[in-house]
Amino acid sequence: MTALLFVVILVGLVVIHEFGHFIVAKATGVRVEEFSVGFGPRLFSFEAGGTLYAFRLFLLGGYVRLYGMEPGQPEAPDSFNERPLWARVLTIVAGPAMNLILAAALFWVLFSGLGLQQIMPGPPQIARLETGMPAQKAGLRPGDRLLAANGKPLANWNALLAVVAASHGQPIRFLVQQDGARHTVTLRPAPDPSAQGQLHIGVLAATEVVRQPLLQGLASGFGQAISVCTLLVTALVGPLTHGQAPPVSGVVGIYSAVQQAEAAGLAQVLTLAAILSANLAVINLVPFPPLDGERLLLLFIEWVRRGRRLDPNREAIVNTIGFALLLVLAVVLAYHDVVHMHGSL
């Protein structure tokens, strides 16, 4: 199931990306020669509207082939390079834009459809008790509410955390509501070995599922997608400015993340897919061949040169070298992920 889910997410994100290029190319009059899902030998295909739609053996993504982007092709009115500059820019930007829209849509489903688990408002309510910790030993039970600590009302769960952290291990007198009655319990916070010795009383917060209205959830989805993109840019640029390698992960690391998300449930799977989609949008805008960012850079240079393109044959050579370097990087990242997960080899 993990392998299937991994393939569905990986292929889905890439196909959505390529669909962005495809739909805008069609809309701006660029001839789309092929829309392929997967790579390698063709399993089956059909042709419609002058475009070959193919499904190939190795489901590791997909691609769109636009007429005029390969060297040696005769120029034609529907060639990519013969379309206005604005049309070509929109065609290239559409791929990352679709990944950003997908990320926002997945967050929207999460916020307004499934809903988010949030700590219940008001005085802290206990959902579960940790075995052997002070709260369980004192007879507290799930459903109890902690109304006050040392005579001061507890407005929410954060207030409880602050009181426990500030206790320095000294006893705390709690006013507890249990089965409709109130009584006082004194607890001495103890270090929790599973939380690096932080002080705890051994209670877990009660939560509830909160679903946002559709329009609010849509706005929150786009806001969250943009936040993920911003965090990724910061994570990439920050280390590079200090001469350090950014914390990136390869296919093996992504597979591990999918495995963990699957175990956590549908909400975590949607969250991971949304984050990966936003990441794909940002990574593709990096000006490195053969990513979309490199194509946008070439179009900018063409604009600066008043419509004079660079040599297409040289572009092809640069793209080939860049693709080879990306394959090497993928192998290095996969090795790094394996070593990170299983220790030194």
CA-based gyration radius: 27 Å
**Shape descriptor:** elongated
N-to-C series of helices and strands: HEEHEEHEEHEEEEEEHHHHH
Mean pLDDT: 88
The computed structural class is alpha+beta
What is the topology, as strand order, of the major beta sheet? 6-5-7-8
Low-confidence stretches: none
Please bin the fraction of helical residues: 40-55%
Please give the count of helices: 9
Number of domains: 2
Distance between the termini: 28 Å
- Sheet bearing the most strands, described? 4 strands, antiparallel
Strand content: 15-25%
Number of strands: 12
Could you walk me through the main structural features you see in this protein, from its secondary elements to its overall organization?
The chain is an alpha+beta fold and 345 residues long. The protein folds into 2 domains: 2-115 and 212-342, no CATH class; 119-208, Roll (Pdz3 Domain), CATH 2.30.42.10. 50% of the residues lie in helices and 22% in strands. The chain has 9 helices and 12 strands. The strands form 5 sheets. It has a 4-stranded antiparallel beta sheet, covered by helices on one side. It has a two-stranded antiparallel sheet with strand order 1-2. β1 and β2 form a beta hairpin. The longest helix has 31 residues, at 312-342. The mean pLDDT is 88.
